[in-house]
């Protein structure tokens, strides 16, 4: 059978808005987290980074090590690190973005737009 997906997830709060996935990976790796998985940086209503990120780590040991990084320096800020449920990471991953397409020909159909977006690697079109 397939292994149950791990629930070793953390939330980092207080990140600089310019923090990247690579910055977060490096912070956790230098902090001795051995397996850093998916990193989801959340955005606010304007599409700008919110200062929060959700990260999946590889094991219970990595989770404990990551939690020890709570209230430590990340660049010129102090970050909070807390355990969260996998559901919170999944919710952050599914954040919905809207775009406005303008200057379209009147002949363009909904199917044309869906194909255009999927060709551009947009994962889901509602």
Can you put this structure into words, describing what you see?
- This protein is of the alpha+beta class.
- It contains 4 helices and 5 strands; from the N terminus they run E-H-E-E-H-E-E-H-H.
- It has helices spanning 21-30, 60-67, 86-93, 110-119, and strands at residues 9-13, 36-43, 49-57, 72-74, 77-84.
- The protein has a 5-stranded antiparallel β-sheet, with helices on both faces.
- The radius of gyration is 18 Å and the shape is elongated.
- The relative contact order is 0.20.
Summarize this structure briefly.
The chain is of the alpha+beta class and 126 residues long.
Largest sheet: 5 strands, antiparallel
Shape: elongated
Looking at how many chains there are and whether they match, the oligomeric state comes to single chain
**Cα separation of the termini:** 33 Å
Q: Helical residue percent? A: 25-40%
- Major β-sheet strand ordering: 2-3-1-5-4
User: Topology as H/E string?
Assistant: EHEEHEEHH
Number of strands: 5
What is the number of helices? 4
Sheet/helix structural class = alpha+beta
Task: Compute the CA-based radius of gyration.
Answer: 18 Å
List low-pLDDT spans. Answer: none
Estimated share of beta-strand residues: 25-35%
Mean residue pLDDT: 85
